[in-house]
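G., the chain you wanted modeled:
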Amino acid sequence: MVYHELEDLAIFHHNGVAIVHDVPWSIMNYGGTIVKKNDEILEFMWGMANNGIIKPDLVNGDITVPQLQSKTHCVSLAWLPLLALMVSLIPRAPCFASFLKPTAHASPCSLRLPAMSSSATGHVASAAAEASRPRKMPVLLFDIMDTVVLDPFYHHIPAFFQMSMKELLESKHPTAWSEFETGVINESELARKFFNDGRSFDLEGLKECMVKAYEYIDGVEDILCSLKQNNYEVHAFTNYPVWYELIEEKLKLSKYLSWTFCSCHIGKRKPSPDFYLRAVDHLNIDPGNCIFIDDRKVNVEAALSAGMVGLHFTNAEVLKNELCSLGVELAPLVLQGETEVQ
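Predicted structure as tokens:
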């Protein structure tokens, strides 16, 4: 893990992931528990210490406090053999002084802040167990639109504009959407550029139409849930703009996967080879340990060229059978209030 300080930003790199902490706010997402303010982070850290997950030992080096710097302070917690957690602390955080300066009658090991709530403790314990678990292979990369989620563009957007698909394709700008997908233009620029003739339209109405149409492809949520239950690592690998957040808000895909590879953040679109290579590099695994699933054959062929295992999605039942043939474990689903269902 590498720490950099640039102006008012503290940037940490861990396993290829960049985590940015802004001053005077810090954000940490850990095991489903999100803490934002610096005093919350400090309480969260000591809650882990009080619950035996990390050792509050300033003397023996389990917690290392670097020399104070002018803008940001970094505390490195080396806990569990396989994980290091970095957080940023601000000098004016309410309990920072007591954290750094134990009193004469209290040893560093006896310093204690209020423990976390029982629910937060449960999140931390669960995350700690997950962190200690060996990484399970293969890693699965899912296209989203028309593989996991119904794509409104082909099914609902022409009707919104009161056009046929042919009319829409002929009248829309040839590159505006792809530029939006790669983050080259923002939402406002999309609205100005969407049609070749520059006509205006109801952007918020378009977004509402798309949100209403977002729904899981039949049977795919069950597969994602089973993969989750079997502790597989699953990532989105999608050509989509920042509106993927609308999908997440409605369908909560993050219950099953991480929105790791979105074209709007990577700046690349499938089937660009660079997009696939960036994913492999980020995951730090052999491409042969990646299973890529997409409804478009050209994207699957690009994955095969990158050395991944590629599956062309047609429907959930076929996908389930193909995953099983590759040795992927798909446990029966256990639903609330029922003992077991397939």
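Confidence is low (pLDDT under 50) at residues 1-36, 57-116, 338-342.

Shout if anything looks off.
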